[in-house]
Specification:
By secondary structure, the protein is an alpha/beta fold. It folds into two domains: 21-37 and 294-400, Aspartate Aminotransferase, domain 1; 48-288, Type I PLP-dependent aspartate aminotransferase-like (Major domain) (Aspartate Aminotransferase, domain 2, 3-Layer(aba) Sandwich), CATH 3.40.640.10. It has helices spanning 4-9, 11-26, 39-45, 67-83, 100-111, 137-141, 157-167, 185-194, 207-211, 257-269, 275-288, 291-313, 339-348, 376-380, 385-400, and strands at 28-29, 56-57, 60-61, 91-94, 117-121, 143-147, 171-174, 198-202, 224-228, 239-244, 317-318, 327-331, 351-352, 354-356, 370-374. Helix 4 (67-83) packs parallel to helix 11 (275-288) and helix 7 (157-167) packs parallel to helix 8 (185-194). The two termini are 42 Å apart. The structure holds pyridoxal-5'-phosphate. The site of pyridoxal-5'-phosphate (PLP) has 14 residues, from helix 5.
């Protein structure tokens, strides 16, 4: 895109864009929740669909002039079914949540009552704020209790079962922001079924890997799946909610999960959907259906494994001793660093990571024991295992002054 109107009429903002573009190009971006979208996704975000109000859903809008919008939303939903290999008779899809956080809050609110008990992974062990952390509205409105990982950094399904049977939650949330191992959705479903709870899978981080066949799918196990579209799925900043077309367990009898969720998104929590973003989601889903995307997803995992392997050879402590997905957590204290000091040194030298609590961390989130790194962006840029070895060596030399 040439941005010629920005350049001509908004020079201050244009300059900011130029330096940000340059920054993104010049750094090694290892933040696992980020990605660099295609030009087509960028173009889609800037289309005239941004001008349209479309409160409601297909053929039930509060504004006129929405024939094209209806076609777009219907088509984007079809793409979701194709990408995740599920059927419209079994699942409903909502594309309107403004972000992953909104999507999660909408699901809890749609299917539970305030104060209901929910079991999820704690933020400190890899879960997300919206999995009921006390500072999040989710944690204020619902009674979240948490599971974590064992001392080796793995989920312990027997322990999760024990907690579930003792606490009898109405929903179990699986999925994480900082867990580097395969999530066993089938086991989670068995646990949820044993106590009559819903299973919600927050696949925000791994949606692209699932779409590309590089991580097992949450379907048919999860009753509800939420995901951001901007991480490994490599689309715009937004979210999807996929839910079973089954009767609700705890709400008005006869109501269907996906209908309750649709109603909670609009009019419950949001107004008009961002149709330009939904247009861009459709573009990213078309991209995810191309054979190249499968290759991409598999390469993301190969790269993460190569990076973890090389870092371990160099003496780094990787939580759970490796990775099965796109990310890893590293305890940087053996090198005399905290997450903050390590992140700062790396940033000064063009490597961007995020500081992160590690399981059983003894410090605070602002300056924890670890960093979290991942390979979605560098893989998008075409890097392979050889590049990962170089990056590991560079990280090692920067953090050890070697
Ligand atoms: C597992 C998980 N769920 C939800 C979210 C929230 O997404 P958003 O930042 O779009 O609100 C994130 C974001 O990092 C996440 O990692």
């Amino acid at each position: 895109m040439d941005y010629k109107n920005l350049k001509k009429n908004h020079s201050k903002l244009y300059k900011l864009l130029v330096v940000e573009k340059k920054r993104q190009k010049n750094v090694i971006n290892l933040i696992p929740s980020e990605n660099y979208v295609s030009q087509a996704v960028l173009e889609a975000l800037g289309t005239e669909f941004t001008n349209k109000y479309a409160e409601g859903y297909s053929e039930m809008r509060y504004y006129f002039g929405n024939k094209n919008v209806d076609q777009l939303e219907d088509y984007a939903k079809l793409l979701v079914y194709k990408v995740f290999k599920i059927k419209p008779v079994d699942y409903g899809v909502n594309l309107q949540a403004y972000s992953g956080s909104t999507a999660n809050l909408a699901v809890y609110h749609a299917l539970l009552n305030p104060g209901d008990k929910v079991l999820s992974m704690s933020l400190e062990h890899g879960g997300h704020l919206t999995h009921g952390h006390k500072v999040s509205l989710t944690g204020k409105l619902f009674n979240f209790i948490h599971y974590g990982v064992n001392r080796n950094g793995f989920l312990d399904y027997d322990q999760i079962l024990q907690i579930a049977q003792k606490e009898k939650p109405k929903m179990i949330v699986c999925g994480a922001s900082a867990y580097s191992r395969i999530i066993d959705f089938k086991k989670f479903k068995e646990i949820a079924d044993s106590v009559g709870a819903y299973l919600m899978a927050d696949i925000s981080h791994i949606a692209g890997l699932i779409a590309g066949g590089a991580h097992p799918s949450p379907f048919p196990y999860a009753d509800i799946a939420t995901t951001t579209t901007h991480k490994t799925l490599r689309g715009p900043r937004a979210a999807l909610i996929i839910s079973k077309k089954q009767k609700s367990k705890f709400q008005v009898s006869g109501s269907i999960l996906h209908e309750l969720i649709d109603k909670m998104i609009f009019p419950g929590m949001q107004g008009g959907p961002h149709m330009n973003t939904i247009f861009a989601i459709a573009v990213c889903l078309e991209e995810a259906l191309k054979p190249n995307f499968k290759k991409y997803a598999k390469q993301v995992v190969k790269n993460a494994k190569a990076l973890a392997n090389e870092l371990q050879k160099l003496g780094f402590k990787i939580i759970s001793d490796g990775t099965d997905n796109h990310l890893m957590l590293i305890d940087v204290t053996p090198l005399g660093h905290t997450g903050k000091t390590a992140g700062e040194i790396l940033e000064k030298n063009g490597i961007i990571v995020n500081k992160n609590m590690i399981p059983y961390d003894t410090r605070k989130p602002w300056d924890p024991l670890g960093i979290r790194i991942g390979t979605p962006t560098v893989t998008t840029q075409g890097m392979t295992e050889k590049d990962m070895e170089k990056i590991a060596k560079k990280i090692h030399s920067l953090l050890t002054n070697d």
